[in-house]
Structure formats: structure tokens, C-alpha cells
């Protein structure tokens, strides 16, 4: 079965959450595929799952945002189970690019952990290029505690299992 992308469906939630959990742990991120998040992104028209042999093999969550000049399609999570499924990631990028174009949004940005070599390779293969900016983040309140806990869990996994190969 060839891998293809299709719009995110509520029935995909268990598979997407499983991938999201593994991806978040591997890269020290907060999980992003909660129930409310998946409902929100499904309504944007820019959220997709990659489906192939064995079921859901990756997902992308994106939304159009306006920066005052023009709209940009911003993907805040682009993931497949670590260390990455190149075929699934490329199918997701093709669907994301088409959805942006069809919506008349000609700038697309994908947020990606610097260590995600498979994601970066898929982006490069689909003609995405690194932006010349860096993103700095700070979480406040209880979110800061959740982010720190995720980073500790990732560091423990790296120490115990050798972690995800970083590119």
C-alpha cells in the first residue's frame, strides 16, 4: 500500500496521540495532540495524517495566520514516529503545500526541532529551506514545569536507550 495523506479525522486521534507522545518524548517537547487541539486543527483544513501499511504513519497540524502583511500557513507539529518515516513525511508536506496553495496562502512555515534529521530531510526534498531566523520560546507558570519535565524525560530516554539519532 502506498503512503498517502488525507485530512485529519476524529477517528485518527488515538494513533495521532501515540505518535505525538513518542515524538514529544524523543525531542523534549510538550505533547500537542490533545483532544481540543485535534478538534481545532481538524477545522483549519490544514491538518493531515499520512496513512500507509499499518495505519497512520505521521501527521501535520497547521493553521493559517496573518502577520499584518500576508497570510502564512504555519505548521506547529510535523511528526512521524522517531526516527522518522521519510515516505510519510513527504506525503504530509505535499498535502500541506497543496492545501496552502488552494487556500491562496503562499508562505508556508514548518516548526521543527533542530534534532529532527528525518523531518529536515523531508522538508529539503520538498523544496523547503531553513528560515534565516531563530525562534526563542519561554513558557510561563505551570507550562514551564511541563516543558521542563518533558526535557528531563527526553534526557533520561537518551541516557537509557541511546535516544534518537540526531542529524
Please identify the top-level CATH class.
Alpha Beta
Distance between the termini: 29 Å
Estimated radius of gyration: 16 Å
Tally the helices: what do you get?
5
Task: Write a structural description.
This protein is globular. Strand 2 and strand 3 form a beta hairpin. It has a single domain (4-161), classed as 3-Layer(aba) Sandwich (Aminopeptidase), CATH 3.40.630.30. A five-stranded mixed beta sheet has the order 1-2-3-4-5, with helices on both faces. Helix 1 (13-27) crosses helix 5 and helix 3 crosses helix 4. By secondary structure, it is α+β, with helices and mostly antiparallel strands. The protein has five helices and five strands. It starts with a strand and ends in a 6-residue tail after the last helix.
Mind sketching the topology for me?
Layout: E1 4-7, H1 13-27, H2 35-44, E2 48-52, E3 55-66, E4 71-79, H3 86-102, E5 108-110, H4 117-125, H5 142-161
Parallel strand pairs: 4-5
Antiparallel strand pairs: 1-2, 2-3, 3-4
Helix pairs in contact: 1-5, 3-4
Amino acid at each position: 500500500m502506498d503512503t498517502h495523506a488525507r485530512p485529519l479525522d476524529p477517528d485518527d486521534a488515538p494513533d495521532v496521540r501515540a505518535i505525538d507522545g513518542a515524538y514529544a518524548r524523543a525531542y523534549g517537547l510538550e505533547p500537542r495532540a490533545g483532544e481540543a487541539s485535534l478538534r481545532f486543527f481538524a477545522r483549519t483544513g490544514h491538518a493531515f495524517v499520512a496513512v500507509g501499511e499499518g495505519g497512520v504513519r505521521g501527521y501535520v497540524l497547521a493553521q493559517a495566520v496573518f502577520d499584518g502583511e500576508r497570510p502564512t500557513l504555519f505548521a506547529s507539529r510535523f511528526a512521524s514516529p522517531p526516527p522518522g518515516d521519510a515516505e510519510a513525511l513527504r506525503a504530509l508536506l505535499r498535502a500541506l503545500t497543496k492545501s496552502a496553495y488552494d487556500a491562496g496562502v503562499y508562505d508556508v512555515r514548518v516548526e521543527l526541532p533542530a534534532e529532527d534529521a528525518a523531518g529536515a530531510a523531508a522538508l529539503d526534498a520538498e523544496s523547503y529551506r531553513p528560515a534565516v531566523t531563530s525562534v526563542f520560546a519561554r513558557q510561563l507558570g505551570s507550562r514551564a514545569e511541563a516543558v521542563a519535565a518533558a526535557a528531563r524525560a527526553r534526557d533520561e530516554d537518551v541516557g537509557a536507550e541511546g535516544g534518537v539519532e540526531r542529524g
